[in-house]
Design goal:
By secondary structure, the chain is an alpha/beta fold. The chain has a single domain, classed as HAD superfamily/HAD-like (Rossmann fold), CATH 3.40.50. The protein is built from eight helices and seven strands; from the N terminus they run βαααααβαβββαβαβ. The strands form two sheets. A five-stranded parallel sheet has the order 3-2-1-6-7, with helices on both faces. The protein has a two-stranded antiparallel sheet with strand order 4-5. β6, α8 and β7 form a beta-alpha-beta unit. α1 packs across α4 and α2 packs antiparallel against α3. It is globular. It starts with 6 loop residues before the first strand and ends with a strand. 31% of the residues are buried.
């Protein structure tokens, strides 16, 4: 282990990207009309999230179930692969893309830590040669259930996942980039935290 290697931690949605990747993927995959139709029964649930009446985890799994519940795993993987290949790079904020590639070019260890599901992010991070910690979609009998396999990768869970992968004390300096309170714990690890600074 190189004790002086730098570590760069990036949130994805809203930090690296201009908007949420799940909603962007749903519109591209299913079309605006179907998304709006599905959104009507989900609206009371989704509107309860900002006020804390409904947990983000509950809202996320309800959306995943509505669109992907029962989908064959192979089809879901293909959807994620296509989105990552054709759309994710174009969703990056220019300043965020520049900063991401600076860290890569400097040889820093770069990890994207996201609450979004890994299947539509990993093909992109693999192509860049960087690492990913993200929420995972649950599978059962070869199909997507709509539930998460394990905890939603948000808040303290981001730090727990990171510490399960490495010891932050082995890296100096640590950079972290985020844009919501779900990134606060991750930002607190950093020597150089950046909150909403890549816009």
């Amino acid at each position: 282990m190189n004790q002086t290697q730098a570590l760069a931690l990036f949130d994805l949605d809203g930090t690296l990207t201009r908007r949420d990747t799940l909603s962007d993927l749903l519109i591209r995959q299913f079309g605006l009309r179907r998304c709006l139709a599905a959104g009507i029964p989900l609206a009371p649930l989704l509107l309860g999230v900002p006020g804390g009446l409904v947990s983000r985890d509950t809202a996320k799994t309800r959306v995943l179930k509505a669109f992907f519940g029962g989908m064959p795993e192979e089809e879901f993987l293909a959807v994620g692969e296509r989105y990552a290949r054709e759309h994710l790079e174009n969703l990056l904020r220019p300043q965020a893309r520049e900063r991401l590639h600076w860290h890569i070019g400097e040889g820093h260890r770069v990890i994207v830590i996201s609450a979004s599901v890994s299947d539509w992010i990993r093909p992109w991070t693999d192509r860049l040669g960087i690492e990913l910690l993200a929420s995972e979609a649950a599978r059962e009998n070869g199909r997507i259930t709509g539930e998460l396999a394990g905890a939603n990768c948000r808040g303290e869970e981001k730090v727990r996942r990171l510490r399960g992968l490495l010891d932050p004390g082995d890296y100096q300096p640590i950079y972290a980039y985020g844009d919501t309170d779900g990134d606060t714990a991750m930002l607190a690890l950093a020597d150089h935290p950046t909150y909403r600074g890549l816009r």
